[in-house]
């Protein structure tokens, strides 16, 4: 059963456990590939994760002159292949969210690979496994469908309004999980 | 058993040449389940893998948990005993030399004997902690009373859980930190959380907290700061530090006035209602608002929500407990549940967020100055006899009650106490009024410290013994629910390090008390004696065998025998533990903090944790990820206050109180009261905020008032000329 990464941003408490967990994935060389931002640092403690959305037609891969960024059969947009990456950094500019990171020493791009060593066997990614708040979840399409009160009016999943990029494998709860919740009493 | 909607069957990822050891985190009371990854060729711990099958936390961990495994084979581990011959170097890292266990034991035994011969049995003391297994906590109490024969033993729970313990004992007659399992939390209709920065201190509770709101339930948070949990609360009661008692009394008054009291429940199952009702009448919304600084509408609305909620859980933590009226605060919040009858059933009750990994179990089994295993009292002859029967000593040999943690330092200063055996604690960072405490430690004739890193407190020792991390030993821990769980060994102790229980057995032999300890060869041996010693006490662990813990995903105490499955929910029969079976509703007159702001010290200083560090930081400050995320302390200041002092974000300022001072980097945030500043307490030496805190102790729990004192800021840097 196909599962996806699903994000409920308002749950985030800024604990950065997702970053710590990302350093622990196999082949990650203890470097995290995700981000957590303070949304309004001098005002409140709101934070949000910034994750690779594993675009269906990824700008990062399209921009790569060396075809170093492969798309796995699960839809995961992988980190650059060491033997192919020429270090041009096109992808870091092409990605609308600035996801790919660059290692200047190795002259190599690295990015979220959706913990492919785990997710190819249906095991949740490290970040979504540990996230203490369920900001990051690993769900089946059916489970996501059951949260449908979170769909946009136009019935589409998009990553931002207006569209920055097309369809993505990672889904984000917009406009927000508490929208439209009726109070119990 | 308690598998809920968050539980999913997931296989773990395993790599070749690797095995997973199921265990729990080394740090806070959540005791999140985790698997340690062990390389089968080197037999070393190499990483962590989520433990999806642990029903409380289903694989979730905060960043401390994710990186906890890095403690075990850390370069700072102590591998051999250290001895320092030059006492003038006390209080520094200097002058230690490596020694054999033989030499260290010989020296300790000789010094301990010398001090006791010259100054009496009680010239020695034991200061311990509750970030270790029940078995170790139990044996430490026995070691102090039987091997050393001293009355002076106490522990760091006095800086952590003692007020919760005192409040629960007074209200319920029993001190189990939660009346219900954590798997109930997301199913309640209202959470009233006071003085808990849950998102940073117990992060893995948060998915259950948020789920309450997602279901349409309510979240009420009382905190001087808009913490990450307060940010999303339906009502944030932004009270002045140290005014919880007024707030709780004010809300109780509204509950009673507006007809939310459950008269039937109150009549049948409680005492003290009428008297309390009279007392809280004074706490009108106006008066409560005046004392607490919280807007009247918020107080009224919070009481309305809690009153209307079919089910509700009142939860609290050190914010209300670390005050010189901490016990009263706890009882005052418990009052809300007792008066409205929202207790003694599922999905409703009261809980404290236990701070340390074994903050619950560690306080029950005889490390406290006046307690013996099974929560028995050392002042109760029947209790003493029961424990003597297990230990094989006579009641005459049992020392009397000692004094609380902070008071032990006062006795060191006076030279009543001359020797100290410190383990599992770092009071040179975590105690209040540190200038005094550090001086008291320097004043000792002889000090032994057991730790796995050279802590700030070890810097005061003459002998440092290398103990093991949690991953190199096994035993049980009681988590914040009151659930007894099993910590499993993943690796052999590194270097020459030894578990604390083994150190105590071997030291007891050196001290000529071997016959009471020599039969304890393994952690399991200690566990069996420990269970027996609790039998018949009200914290009865006798039926909580390791086997049962494994089969049942933990066992909630009390658990009296083999057939008893344990007690996840307390008071389901509406029977409380006072002799008449009733709970006590307490009439509690308000007292302000011991030190109120004045002209000289106009700000309120409060302290707490950040998500990246645990307690004194002796462990977490050494973990690269955690250190990167929060390398040093800071002072949180509201922008209006910053304007008044003409200070900027990231600027260094001098923060001072009547007791001490420090230089702190300013962090400007609107998420704090204007009259309050906040500094995290995880840092050592001149960065310790406890140099500034006050040692005003609660009369019952002897808890210092870490959460409120009067402070002042001074600008250091000159304005840059533009
Ligand atoms: S682990 Fe979850 S809650 Fe913590 S920072 Fe990451 S997304 Fe936010
Ligand atoms: S989010 Fe950026 S890095 Fe990720 S797949 Fe899309 S374009 Fe590539
Ligand atoms: S899915 Fe894996 S690689 Fe991607 S951010 Fe999460 S932990 Fe890192
Ligand atoms: S520190 Fe506490 S919340 Fe964090 S992983 Fe460990 S037990 Fe869980």
Strand elements of chain A, count: 7
The unique ligands bound to this protein are: iron/sulfur cluster
Report, as a whole number of angstroms, the end-to-end distance of chain B.
68 Å
> What radius of gyration of chain B results from the CA coordinates?
25 Å
Strand fraction of chain A:
5-15%
Here the CATH topology of chain A equals Alpha-Beta Plaits
Largest interface: A-B, 39 and 52 residues
Task: Please count the helical segments of chain A.
Answer: 6
Helix content of chain B: 25-40%
CATH class of the largest domain in chain B: Alpha Beta
Q: Which structural class fits the helix and strand makeup of chain A?
A: alpha+beta
Helix content range of chain A: 10-25%
Can you identify the CATH class of chain A?
Alpha Beta
Which range does the strand content of chain B fall in? 15-25%
Overall number of domains of chain A: 1
Strand order of the largest sheet of chain A: 6-1-7
CATH architecture of the largest domain in chain B: 3-Layer(aba) Sandwich
Q: Which second-level CATH architecture of chain A applies? A: 2-Layer Sandwich
Low-confidence stretches of chain A: none
Keywords (chain B): 4Fe-4S, Iron, Iron-sulfur, Metal-binding
InterPro entries (chain B): Asp_de-COase-like_dom_sf (IPR009010), MoPterin_dinucl-bd_dom (IPR006657), Mopterin_OxRdtase (IPR006656), Mopterin_OxRdtase_4Fe-4S_dom (IPR006963), Prok_molybdopt-oxidoreductase (IPR050123)
Domain 4Fe-4S Mo/W bis-MGD-type (chain B): 18-76
GO molecular function (chain B): 4 iron, 4 sulfur cluster binding; metal ion binding; molybdopterin cofactor binding; NADH dehydrogenase activity
Structure description:
The complex is a heterodimer of chains A (185) and B (722). Chain A contains six helices and seven strands; from the N terminus they run βαββααββααβαβ. Chain A has 185 residues and is α+β, with helices and mostly antiparallel strands. Chain A has a single domain (3-178), classed as Alpha-Beta Plaits (2-Layer Sandwich). The radius of gyration of chain A is 17 Å and the shape is globular. Chain B folds into four domains: 2-71, Phosphorylase Kinase, domain 1 (2-Layer Sandwich); 82-158 and 358-481 and 493-542, Rossmann fold (3-Layer(aba) Sandwich), CATH 3.40.50; 162-352, Dimethylsulfoxide Reductase, domain 2 (3-Layer(aba) Sandwich), CATH 3.40.228.10; 603-715, Barwin-like endoglucanases (Beta Barrel), CATH 2.40.40. Chain B contains 23 helices and 28 strands. In chain B, α3 (134-148) runs parallel beside α19 (500-510) and α8 (244-257) runs antiparallel to α11 (285-292). The N and C termini of chain B lie far apart (68 Å). At the A-B interface, α1 and α5 of A face β3, α1, α6 and α7 of B. Bound molecules: iron/sulfur cluster (SF4) (4 copies). One iron/sulfur cluster is lined by residues 25, 27-28, 30-32, 61-62, 64-65, 202-204 of chain B. Chain A: Residues 3-33, 39-74, 76-105 form the 4Fe-4S ferredoxin-type domain. Chain A: One of its GO terms (molecular function) is metal ion binding.
């Amino acid at each position: 059963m196909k599962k996806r990464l699903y994000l409920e941003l308002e749950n985030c408490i800024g604990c950065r456990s997702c970053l710590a967990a990302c350093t622990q994935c196999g082949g990650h060389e203890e470097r995290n590939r995700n981000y957590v931002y303070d949304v309004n640092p001098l005002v409140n403690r709101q934070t949000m994760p910034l994750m690779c959305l594993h675009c269906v037609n990824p700008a990062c891969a399209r921009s790569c002159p060396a075809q170093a960024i492969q798309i796995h059969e699960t839809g995961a947009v992988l980190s650059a292949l060491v033997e192919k990456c020429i270090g041009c950094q096109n992808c870091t500019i092409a990605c609308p969210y600035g996801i790919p990171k660059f290692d200047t020493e190795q002259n190599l791009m690295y990015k979220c690979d959706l913990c492919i060593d785990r997710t190819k066997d249906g095991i949740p990614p490290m970040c979504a496994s540990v996230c203490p708040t369920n900001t990051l979840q690993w769900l089946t399409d059916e489970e996501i469908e059951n949260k449908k009160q979170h769909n946009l009016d136009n019935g589409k999943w998009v990553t931002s309004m207006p569209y920055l990029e097309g369809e993505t494998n990672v889904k984000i709860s917009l406009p927000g999980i508490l929208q439209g919740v009726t109070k119990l009493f | 058993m308690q598998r809920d909607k968050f539980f999913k069957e997931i296989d773990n990822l395993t790599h070749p040449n690797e095995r997973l050891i199921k265990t729990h985190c080394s740090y806070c009371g959540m005791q999140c389940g985790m698997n340690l990854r062990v390389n089968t060729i080197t037999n070393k711990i190499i990483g962590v893998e989520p433990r999806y099958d642990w029903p409380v936390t289903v694989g979730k961990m905060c960043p401390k948990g994710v990186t906890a495994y890095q403690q075990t084979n850390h370069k700072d581990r102590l591998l051999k005993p250290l001895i320092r011959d030059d006492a003038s170097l006390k209080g520094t890292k200097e002058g230690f030399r490596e020694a054999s266990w033989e030499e260290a034991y010989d020296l300790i035994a000789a010094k301990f004997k010398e001090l006791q011969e010259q100054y009496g049995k009680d010239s020695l003391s034991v200061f311990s902690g509750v970030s270790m297994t029940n078995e170790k906590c139990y044996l430490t109490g026995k070691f102090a009373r039987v091997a050393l024969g001293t009355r002076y033993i106490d522990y760091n729970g006095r800086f952590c859980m003692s007020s919760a313990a005192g409040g629960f004992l007074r209200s319920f007659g029993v001190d189990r930190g939660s009346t219900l399992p954590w798997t109930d939390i997301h199913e309640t209709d209202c959470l009233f959380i006071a003085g808990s920065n849950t998102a940073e201190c117990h992060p893995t509770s948060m998915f259950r907290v948020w789920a309450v709101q997602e279901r349409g339930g309510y979240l009420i948070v009382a905190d001087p700061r808009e913490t990450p949990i307060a940010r999303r609360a339906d009502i944030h009661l932004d009270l002045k530090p140290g005014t919880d008692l007024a707030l709780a009394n004010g809300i109780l008054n509204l509950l009673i006035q507006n007809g939310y009291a459950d008269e039937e429940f109150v009549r049948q199952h409680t005492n003290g209602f009428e008297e309390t009702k009279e007392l809280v009448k004074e706490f009108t919304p106006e008066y409560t608002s005046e004392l607490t600084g919280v807007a009247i509408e918020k107080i009224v609305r919070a009481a309305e929500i809690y009153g209307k909620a079919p089910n509700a859980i009142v939860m609290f933590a050190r914010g209300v407990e670390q005050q010189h009226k901490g016990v009263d605060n706890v009882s005052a919040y418990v009052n809300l549940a007792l008066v409205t009858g929202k207790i003694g059933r599922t999905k409703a009750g009261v809980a404290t967020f236990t701070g340390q990994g074994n903050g619950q179990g560690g306080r029950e089994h005889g490390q406290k100055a006046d307690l013996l295993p099974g929560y028995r009292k050392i002042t109760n002859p029947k209790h003493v006899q029961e424990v003597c029967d297990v230990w094989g000593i006579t009641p005459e040999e049992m020392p009397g009650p000692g004094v609380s943690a902070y008071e032990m330092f006062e006795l060191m200063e006076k030279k009543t106490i001359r020797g100290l055996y410190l383990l599992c604690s770092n009071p040179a960072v975590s105690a209040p009024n540190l200038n005094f405490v550090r001086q008291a430690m320097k004043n000792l004739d002889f000090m032994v410290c057991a730790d796995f890193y050279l802590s700030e407190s070890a810097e005061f020792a003459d002998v440092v013994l290398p103990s093991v991390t949690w991953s190199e030993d096994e035993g049980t821990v009681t988590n914040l629910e009151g659930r007894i769980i099993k910590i499993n060994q993943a690796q052999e102790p590194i270097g020459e390090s030894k578990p604390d229980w083994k150190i105590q057995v071997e030291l007891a032999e050196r001290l000529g008390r071997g016959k009471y300890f020599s039969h304890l060869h393994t952690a399991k041996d200690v566990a069996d004696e420990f269970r027996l010693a609790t039998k018949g006490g009200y914290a009865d662990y006798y039926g909580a065998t390791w086997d049962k813990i494994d089969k049942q995903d933990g066992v909630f105490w009390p658990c009296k025998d083999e057939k008893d499955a344990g007690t996840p929910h307390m008071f389901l029969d509406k029977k409380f533990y006072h002799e008449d079976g009733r709970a006590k509703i307490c009439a509690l007159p308000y007292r302000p903090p011991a030190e109120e702001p004045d002209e000289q010290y106009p700000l309120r200083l409060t302290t707490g944790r950040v998500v990246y560090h645990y307690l004194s930081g002796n462990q977490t400050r050494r973990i690269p990820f955690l250190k990167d995320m929060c390398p040093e302390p800071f002072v949180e200041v509201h922008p209006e206050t910053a304007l008044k002092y003409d200070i900027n974000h990231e600027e260094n300022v001098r923060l001072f109180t009547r007791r001490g001072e420090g230089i702190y980097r300013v962090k400007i945030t609107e998420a704090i009261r204007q009259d309050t500043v906040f500094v995290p307490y995880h840092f050592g030496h001149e960065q310790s905020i406890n140099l500034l805190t006050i040692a005003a102790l609660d009369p019952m729990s002897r808890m210092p008032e870490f959460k409120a004192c009067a402070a002042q800021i001074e600008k250091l840097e000159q304005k840059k000329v533009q």
